[in-house]
Amino acid sequence: MMKQPKWWLLAIGALLLFAGGIWYAFFGVGPEPASDQETALVEFKGADLQQEENGELIWKLSAKHIMMNPKTRVLYMEEAEALFSDGPHQIHVQAQKGQVDNMQKTVRLMGSIEIRSDNDTYVKVNNLLYDGGTGKLTATDGIRLERNGMVLTGDNLVADRALRQATVSGNVRLVKGEEAQ
């Protein structure tokens, strides 16, 4: 039987230990990434946000409390007020909650929402979505639109951002005068 030098055994052991360390560093068990729900929100109080296009105001939002998810960059608002503008025409919106997603180019308002336009139109909805890609307002889940003593109700609304042109669909009903109350 032939005797092997002991330093070879030490070299092979060190090489195996080194290779195992590299394998563990790349494929070993590490800390699990935090889920989206565990991401801490950044809070703001009394902030204003706005979007302009070619120097013209598109929308402006303010809220008593704004939180931002730093991972998704989505803003969440409480007691939100919004102004949507299309040239000289504007609407003013009050909502219980809101959400701004800059990646999707959307502003979503939720809760009991009241909209007043500069042409004396009053609208009450539960959900309102502004799509920055199309420039349209969409409301679902019940619509009540009042103007010039007439009340128009329905399930859905699609309108330009100043409520100059609006389409109400689904269970539409138009009532005039005293019957509107």
Overall description:
The protein has one helix spanning 6-27; strands at residues 42-45, 48-53, 56-68, 74-86, 89-101, 106-117, 122-131, 136-147, 150-154, 156-160, 166-169, 173-176. The mean pLDDT is 83. The chain is built from 1 helix and 12 strands, in the order αββββββββββββ. The longest helix is centred in the N-terminal third of the chain and has 22 residues, at 6-27. Strands 1, 2, 3, 4, 5, 6, 7, 8, 9, 10, 11 and 12 form a 12-stranded antiparallel β-sheet that branches. It starts with 5 loop residues before the first helix and ends in a 5-residue tail after the last strand. The chain has 181 residues and is mainly beta.
Topology, please?
Blueprint: H1 6-27, E1 42-45, E2 48-53, E3 56-68, E4 74-86, E5 89-101, E6 106-117, E7 122-131, E8 136-147, E9 150-154, E10 156-160, E11 166-169, E12 173-176
Antiparallel strand pairs: 1-3, 2-3, 3-4, 4-5, 5-6, 6-7, 7-8, 8-9, 8-10, 9-12, 10-11
Can you describe this structure in just a few lines?
With 181 residues, the protein is mostly beta strands. Helix content is 12%, strand content 56%.
Shape: elongated
Based on helices, strands and strand pairing, what is the structural class? mainly beta
In angstroms, what is the radius of gyration? 29 Å
SSE order: HEEEEEEEEEEEE
The total count of helices amounts to 1
Which tags fit this structure?
single chain, 181 residues, mainly beta, twelve-stranded antiparallel beta sheet, 12 strands, 12% helix
